[in-house]
Amino acid sequence: MELRHLNYFVAVAEELHFGRAAERLFMAQPPLSRQIQQLEAELGVALFTREKKRVGLTPAGAVFLGEARAALARVDEAMEAARKAGRGERGRLRVGAATAAVCGLLPAATQLFRERFPEVDLSLSEMCSGQQPREVLERRLDIGLIMPSAEIPGMAAEIIRTEALMAILPQGHPLASHAVLSLADLSDEPFVLFPEHMGPALYQKIVDLCQAAGFTPKIAQEATPHGTLLAMVGAGAGVSLAPASLEGSSPQNVVFCRLEEAPPVELAAIWRMGDAPAAAARFLEVLRDTVESAKPAR
User: Are 197 and 130 in contact (CB under 8 A)?
Assistant: First the structure.
């Protein structure tokens, strides 16, 4: 039995006339009659009564009609589901995100994505930048949001957003009242930083910036995640540098100050080259739209 047999049967059952059913199916009547006879032979039951020029459904035919309609509807649903999955509008998407993305970009992007693509099962994991490339390559994540470093073989990347790197000080620190600082102002300060393997690109950027300003940062305390790092700064363990997006989630006892010479830090999306699910492309579109809508009006 093939799907076409179900379509033939439903057409005859609804028309109760082989000629009209044949016209509806754009075929000749004799082949249609033979197909219905073959279907009845395969099932081992009569589906239609045939009395002179009148056609009717047998009890078995009435039952089969309901099941055939349901089967055809299910096939239509399956085809539409496959099309939606191919367009990235249905399925599963696993996203990893560095803290800077979680604090600044991801809440709005996630809401917009779920509004546009409610049939995609979106799962989010906060994860350090250093861990995400392996998770993506080993297919435990579909897309990652990281502070990028060197090019990763087999991985595609796109810069999603840039933001300022800022100094973070305890509220009562003598420099906390300054709107803008130079990195050299922090040369004698102890630093609180995350472990290098958690975000190698940002860690190296911080070290390089400090060295360009004439000093190597004295790391008094390593802390992770960033909530703990901010708490340690607030407790007076030292100062730190971090992306501006963390300011919105910082405790009241720390102060973010702009830096004169710090270049912007980048947030990038990464995914497996040529092997990402279609929903990843839809998520990238939403990220771009979210970043664009957050820009101040000109």
Answer: yes
User: Is residue 65 located within the same domain as residue 133?
Assistant: no
Which of 31, 55, 86 is the C-terminal boundary of a domain?
86
Domain containing residue 244: 165-263
pTM (2 decimals)?
A: 0.76
Instruction: Please report, in angstroms and rounded to a whole number, the separation of the first and last CA atoms in the chain.
Output: 64
Assess whether 25 and 111 both reside in one domain. Answer: no
Q: pLDDT for 209-239, tens place per residue? A: 999 999 999 999 998 888 899 999 999 999 9
Distance between CA atoms of residues 52 and 41, nearest Å: 21
Averaged pLDDT, 159-164: 90
DSSP state, 263? P
For the chain, how many helices (H) and strands (E)?
A: 10, 13
Residue located via tokens 């300003």: 213
260 three-class SS: coil
